[in-house]
Amino acid sequence: RKRIGVLTSGGDSPGMNAAVRAIVRVAISRGCDAYAIFEGYEGLVNGGDMIKKFGWADVRGYLAIGGTLIGTARCASFRERKGRLSAAYNLIKNGIDALIVCGGDGSLTGADVLRSEWPGLLEDLIKEGRITIEEATRFKHLTVVGLVGSIDNDMSSTDITIGAVTSLHRICEAIDSISSTALSHSRAFVIEVMGRHCGWLALMAAVSTGADFVFIPERPPISDDWESEMCETLKKHRDLGKRMTIVIVAEGAIDKNLDPIRPEYIKKLLTDHGLDTRVTTLGHTQRGGKPCSFDRNLATIQGVEAVQAVLRATPDTPSPMIGIRENKITCEPLMKAVELTRQVAEAIAQKDFRRAMDLRDPEFSE
Ligand code: ATP
């Protein structure tokens, strides 16, 4: 009887609960036992009552709740081999032989590291007398499956991540609210949105709200005089009769020298051009609240696929990551996706923005 553990890790994202619910219920209906591991890798490293067997009713009501009810954490000790040794020990002591991790690229990298180290970890646990040879033989293979839960939509090899669409909705609602006051007072607003090193939320919010200007990390302004050009564009929009100005700045926005573009700097430029300007940082409201129906559906379907991937896995299959491409659920090697995501960051660091866009999404980049 397979025992499947599930944890949520890294930044919370709306829809993670739907994923946990689907995993627990599909696991049970396929004759497996389901275990919730609380507080991300923290629960795996500490064990004890942070790992709990879950029944059908334990995930009742999960679909509509934002964040993650089984908790999440940034766990420094899991980055060390010693922490992963404890994690392996706790998995074995709970009889868990498959692990489904829902989190961002960091969490999924950690999951893959655990799996790649697994044989060595077992050897060390035997040497330290913490497990028997029989236990090591029984738990010779650890199955790991990744689900991408992140509002940033910054993972390669998938079109969308669990939580990104809800977050985009929150941002659009907030900008719509700001628009009322901007219109009334004929003001300019510079709005900072989340996304870390990914401009997806900022760009999609700009398109969805008809913003006047947007700054994203993947395509910094290249002109030496971009400040004047931006102000010229905004003036043109005003000359067409627009009574408000919205500029969206991704939190990871940079100029061509890789220096951050700060909302306060944009505010100063706009103020100097005679616009009554305010800065609004949307902050954590962007990641909170009820998941939208898309994220509930995506997380549910991907949760089902994650359990199926566990049941399909052989010792030789690389750990898969469940994604979605062109409306089809995908199951690709986790490490490939993590590696591509790393290459995007590297391309940006090398100022090769074109390559970053291509790696992120070749079609979108066109
Ligand atoms: P988000 O995109 O929302 O920030 P994330 O999963 O990328 O989510 P991280 O803080 O990067 O968030 O990672 C979450 C946890 O995953 C870390 O606290 C750590 O426990 C584990 N982790 C990350 N990278 C590694 C790694 N290279 N090796 C082992 N564990 C890791």
From TrEMBL:
Active site: 152 (proton acceptor)
Taxonomy, superkingdom: Eukaryota
Ligand binding (ATP): 11, 74-75, 104-107
Binding site for Mg(2+): 105
Residues that hold substrate according to the record: 150-152, 187, 194-196, 251, 278, 284-287
Family: Belongs to the phosphofructokinase type A (PFKA) family. ATP-dependent PFK group I subfamily. Eukaryotic two domain clade "E" sub-subfamily.
Role, per record: Catalyzes the phosphorylation of D-fructose 6-phosphate to fructose 1,6-bisphosphate by ATP, the first committing step of glycolysis.
Protein name, entry field: ATP-dependent 6-phosphofructokinase
Species per Swiss-Prot/TrEMBL record: Glomus cerebriforme
Organism placement in taxonomy: Eukaryota, Fungi, Fungi incertae sedis, Mucoromycota, Glomeromycotina
Residues shown, of full length: 192 to 557 of 952
